[in-house]
Every structure is written in C-alpha cells, then in structure tokens.
Amino acid sequence: MVNYKDLGLVNTREMFAKAVEGGYAIPAFNFNTMEQMQAIVQAAVETKSPVIMQVSKGARNYANATILRYMAQGAVEYAKELGCENPQIVLHLDHGDSFEICKDCIDSGFSSVMIDGSHLPYDENVALTKKVVEYAHQFDVTVEGELGVLAGVEDEVVAAESHYTKPEEVEDFVSKTGCDSLAISIGTSHGAHKFTPEQCTLVNGVLVPPPLAFDVLAEIEKKLPGFLIVLHGSSSVPQDEVATINQYGGQLKAAIGIPEEQLRQASKSAVCKINIDSDSRLAMTAAVRKVFAENPAEFDPRKYLGPARDNVKKMYEHKIINVLGSDNKL
Ligand SMILES: [Zn+2]
Q1: Are 114 and 146 in contact (CB under 8 A)?
Q2: Taking the model in full, what pTM does it have?
Q3: d(CA 193, CA 260)
Q4: Is residue 115 part of a domain?
Q5: Does residue 330 lie in a domain region?
Q6: How many separate domains does the chain show?
Q7: What is the C-alpha to C-alpha distance for residues 94 and 58, in angstroms, rounded to an integer?
Q8: Span 164-200, pLDDT tens digits
Q9: Using DSSP, how many helices (H) and how many strands (E) does the chain show?
Q10: Could you give the CA distance from residue 236 to residue 155 in angstroms, rounded to a whole number?
Q11: CATH number for the domain including 198?
C-alpha cells in the first residue's frame, strides 16, 4: 500500500473548492509518455497552475500502471527541481470501470479516481460509485462519478450517442454515493471528431458546432449549489494543428471540437475540472509529421519527440492561461 501523500501528490478537494470559488477550472491532461509528463509539469510550473495528470485504462495498458505511478512521483520532484516549492499535482484514474481497478490505483498511490458507471442502470451506478467512495475516502482519495452518457470514443469507452445528464437525478446520485465531483453530459464528447460538418453552422468560413447545454448545467447548479462538476471530452481540436497534420501527409477529415469560448464560460461556473486529451494528441502528431516531412532522413527520436513535447507544452499553457484561467493559483 502506497499513500499518495508520501509521494507529494494531493487530492482534488482543496483545489476544486478554490477553483469554483475563484471562477476557474483545473486542467486535467491525460498522459501516456514521458514527453507528455514533462510538458504537463513544465507548463504547470511556468504558469503556476495546479494540474491533474490523468491515466486512462488505455494508458495503463500502454505504459504500464507501475511506470505511470512512478512518473507521477517523478513529476512532483521535477516540478520542485523547476523551482515550484509547493506543486499541486493530482494523479487521477480516468474512466475506472470497476471497483477493482479503482482499488488497485488507490493502493498504488493515486490521489483521485473516477468510477464511471454511467453505462450501467442508474441503481447499479449508484451502488458501484458508493462502494468506491467508501473505500477511497478511508485514504482521503477523492472520487469522481459520472451521470449521463457522452458520445464518442475514449480508449475503450465507446458510446454512439449522448444522453444529457438529468438534473433531477444529480441530487439523488450525489447524496446516495457521497462522490466528491461528478462528470456530466451537456454536449461535449470524446475524440477529435465531436461533430459532423452537417451538425455545424458555417460562420465566417468556420464550422461552429451546436452550443453546450448550459441550461442543463444551470439547472444542476440550482439543485446542488457549489457542487463540483467535471467536463469530459473538452478538446477544442485546434484547426491550425489539424491543418499542419493534413499539410504533411495526414488525413484528418472534419475534425471539430468544442469552441474555447464555451469552455471559458463553463470554467467560470460550477465546472471545476476540464479534461483535455485529443488536443494533446493533435499537437504532438502535428509536430512529429512536420519534422518527418521536412527532414526525411531524421531517425533520432529526440529530434521529433522533442518538438512534439515543445508543441504540446505550448498548447497546455494556452489552455491554462487563455481558457481555464488556472494560472497564478499556486
Ligand atoms: Zn472521459
């Protein structure tokens, strides 16, 4: 049993309370590789932002759960080495789908877990989430639940269509499970292809997707004032990165994300955590494709993973400063 506190990690409780109070949101960036970890830490330290480093089931399969945990421990030490005296770094399990995987993460040093029972019938979601909360809270680990189904693909989480969270269920779910925060469905979705062009409106040459269901969010805030809300699937799919990928041989068709203006608006509400994964994949891929196209003889991984790291770091900083507003909060 490893307690996250011994690794220098923190849970989400205090940072979420401050975020909602201060009208900003905490960035939750997924990571699988050392370069992403370095970029997350560099961006968080340079902007003085708390940060959530999250690990999906796919990341655990790809990188090995033990390695990821040591990388998070390394992230804390790296942040200190970069001059941050009091790093606020959370190691979070993204989309845990069973009690066992959540327990495994809690026992190995995670400071926060998500139990995603949103695919289950309501009562089973309640029971599973409650079981995880009861275990996690013994170790002061915070728990994110999920109500409502997001469309899209995130590793092994696949849903064809979304179902908005029902505000009337939120109050009941939270009181029965004791979860610390709740992921809701208000129109965000997983992956880089969140909307088809047919679903969008052409405004000044740009495809603008339908707005998020801010009315559902407002209704939830009314029912549970101050409760902590999480948005998944909130990449914006920067069109300059998509253009770079396609310019250098990629074939990303109609990749459309959530407009940053809407995420800015959400950050000022009860939304305390915003998940960004696809934008990191796009930023890294764009940089790698550019190096390969311009230097076809290059074969040193540092020469393409280095620029990938720099580009994704720039994206993280942009999100922290210009979208979520979590800079200068340490
Ligand atoms: Zn998600």
Answers
A1: yes
A2: 0.95
A3: 16
A4: yes
A5: no
A6: 1
A7: 10
A8: 899 999 999 999 999 999 999 998 989 998 888 888 8
A9: 12, 13
A10: 18
A11: 3.20.20.70
In a domain, 288, yes or no: yes
Range(s) of the domain holding residue 137:
4-324
The pLDDT of residue 161? 59
- CA separation for the pair 214, 135 (Å, rounded): 33
Higher pLDDT, 328 or 253: 328
Instruction: Give Cα separations from 192 to 125, 132, 145, 233, 254 (angstroms).
Output: 27, 30, 23, 9, 9
Among 28-32, 220-224, 251-255, the least confident range: 251-255
Residue with more model confidence, 156 or 224: 224
Provide the annotated active-site residues: 94
Residue 281 CA to ligand 1 center (angstroms) comes to: 15
Q: Where are the alpha helices (DSSP H) in the chain?
A: 13-22, 34-47, 57-63, 65-81, 99-107, 122-137, 167-177, 214-223, 239-247, 260-267, 278-294, 301-318
Q: Output the six-digit token pair for 315.
A: 């994206």
In a domain, 119, yes or no: yes
CB contact set of 183 (below 8 Å; sequence gap of 6+): 114, 116, 118, 144, 145, 146, 147, 148, 229, 230, 231, 232
pLDDT in tens, 73-93: 999 999 999 999 999 999 999
CA of 298 to the centre of ligand 1 (A): 35
Give the pLDDT mean for 145-168. Answer: 72
State in Å: Cα 22 to ligand 1 middle: 24
Cα Rg, the chain, nearest whole Å: 19
Percent of the chain predicted with pLDDT > 90: 84
